[in-house]
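Lab notebook, design round three. We kept the backbone fixed and only want residue identities now. Task for the bench partner: fill in a sequence for the structure below.
Input structure tokens:
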């Protein structure tokens, strides 16, 4: 007996989705909401989008709705537009042979819903629902949802052979919901991990970002355990088990990174920063004549390694620039005094300063968990100072300085390079003492600086 007879569930389908299903039913075809929207609904999460699956061929779908887009006609997908929303309607299909472990070369349409569900990646993603038939759960997805298990539909190795990205998707869903991965599925990942090398950088970056910004970002560890990290980000392996040998550092580097991921707020930039911040931390060990170990810290190569990894994974520029800056300055401890805070805001830029504080806190707390209250008080104090600086509109960048390049040219400083240097010195003086941010005084100071430079130049 098919499991889908009469499984009653409480799924709140939007009216437009019901309307699409009714329209297809009235034309004599089956139609269901399917995949992620059903999984999310059963977990009590409001789905971001609703996908539909139908026995109607794509041309019929196009003929039944006034506004459609040919999203992937070859694969049977038509997007239906209703009330400014888009709904992907895909004809029941069986996937043909796969190309490069990611896309079926061709697909065959079928009239059997179960065949369509069979081609999907995980049991929790292979459920369909409509109000007349109830839940169609041929592969026991609901049980797996209840038990918290990511399990492939059918033979896991075949599913990963079809689309290798599914191995990262397994970790992504596990990180999103805090689920375990079924043993056979894990085993198949171990076997097929090398296939990830065929997957495009963009797809890998998107999945990794989803893992990092999930509820369980430290599940990145599973990528190491399953042999996926070795293929997609081998640089990270150097951190695994790397002892920090300092009383303040309570974890090896990889564990420290996972801790900081848990400690930091959930944004794309912050999570990537923590992932990279110590990726190049290394230590050399020497043993003295008494047999005592000594550890010397290397100059950290995190920045260099992060740069390379990001260009390989094709990070967008905005994320790349922000993350690199935060990685570069993550060890800089700022004191809650105005001069220090103004300097830090200047260095990080207004847009990154709050992120910079978050990074500092997460990093420090992972190394010194017992000082939580003290650190939180310190961060509060820095934030207080920062707010006052902003409230008073004090100068924190060249843009806010009471003089600019043109003013310096007017008083006879003409060399571009000198102008840049003088402006920077004036800014440093103003960051120390905002009272000095007045045009007259700064121009005086500029003249003095140039005179001094010329004097030193002559004396050479
Ligand atoms: N490599 C993939 C990608 C998708 N699917 C199937 O297509 C559905 C829709 O895929 P997608 O929109 O990528 O994911 P969702 O499951 O909807 O999850 P989310 O939108 O949260 O990423 C999935 O549920 C799954 O049934 C699959 O079998 N194999």
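Proposed sequence:
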């Amino acid at each position: 007996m098919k499991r889908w007879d009469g499984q009653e569930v409480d799924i709140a389908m939007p009216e437009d989705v019901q309307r699409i299903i009714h329209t297809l039913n009235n034309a004599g075809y089956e139609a269901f909401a399917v995949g992620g929207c059903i999984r999310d609904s059963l977990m009590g999460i409001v789905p971001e989008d609703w996908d539909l699956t139908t026995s109607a061929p794509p041309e019929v779908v196009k003929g039944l709705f006034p506004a459609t887009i040919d999203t992937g006609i070859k694969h049977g997908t038509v997007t239906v537009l209703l009330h400014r929303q888009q709904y992907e309607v895909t004809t029941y299909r069986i996937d043909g042979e796969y190309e490069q472990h990611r896309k079926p070369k061709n697909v065959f349409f079928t009239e059997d819903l179960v065949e369509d569900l069979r081609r999907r990646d995980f049991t929790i993603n292979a459920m369909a629902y409509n109000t007349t038939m109830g839940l169609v759960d041929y592969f026991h997805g609901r049980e797996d949802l209840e038990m918290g298990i990511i399990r492939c539909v059918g033979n896991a190795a075949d599913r990963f052979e079809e689309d290798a990205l599914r191995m990262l998707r397994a970790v992504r869903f596990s990180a999103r919901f805090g689920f375990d991965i079924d043993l056979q599925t894990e085993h198949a990942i171990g076997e097929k991990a090398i296939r990830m090398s065929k997957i495009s950088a963009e797809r890998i970056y998107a999945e990794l970002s989803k893992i990092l910004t999930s509820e369980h970002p430290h599940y990145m560890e599973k990528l190491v355990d399953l042999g996926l990290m070795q293929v997609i980000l081998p640089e990270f392996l150097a951190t695994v088990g790397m002892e920090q040998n300092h009383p303040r550092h309570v974890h090896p580097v990889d564990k420290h990174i996972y801790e900081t991921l848990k400690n930091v707020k959930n944004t794309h930039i912050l999570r990537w920063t923590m992932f990279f911040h110590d990726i190049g931390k290394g230590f050399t060990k020497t043993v003295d004549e008494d047999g005592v170990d000594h550890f010397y810290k290397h100059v950290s190569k995190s920045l260099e390694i992060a740069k390379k990894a990001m260009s390989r994974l094709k990070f967008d520029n905005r994320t790349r620039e922000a993350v690199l800056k935060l990685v570069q300055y993550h060890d800089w401890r700022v004191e809650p005094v105005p001069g220090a805070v103004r300097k830090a805001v200047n260095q990080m830029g207004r847009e990154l300063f709050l992120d910079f504080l978050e990074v500092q806190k997460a990093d420090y707390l992972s190394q010194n968990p017992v000082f939580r209250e003290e650190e939180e008080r310190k961060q509060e104090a820095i934030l207080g100072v920062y707010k006052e600086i902003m409230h008073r509109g004090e100068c924190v960048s060249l843009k806010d300085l009471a003089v600019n390049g043109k003013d310096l040219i007017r008083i006879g400083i003409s060399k571009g390079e000198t102008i840049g240097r003088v402006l920077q010195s004036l800014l440093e003086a103003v960051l120390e003492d905002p009272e000095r941010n007045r045009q007259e005084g700064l121009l005086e100071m500029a003249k003095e600086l140039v005179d001094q430079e010329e004097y030193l130049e002559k004396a050479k």
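Keep this in mind before ordering anything: The chain has a mean pLDDT of 92.
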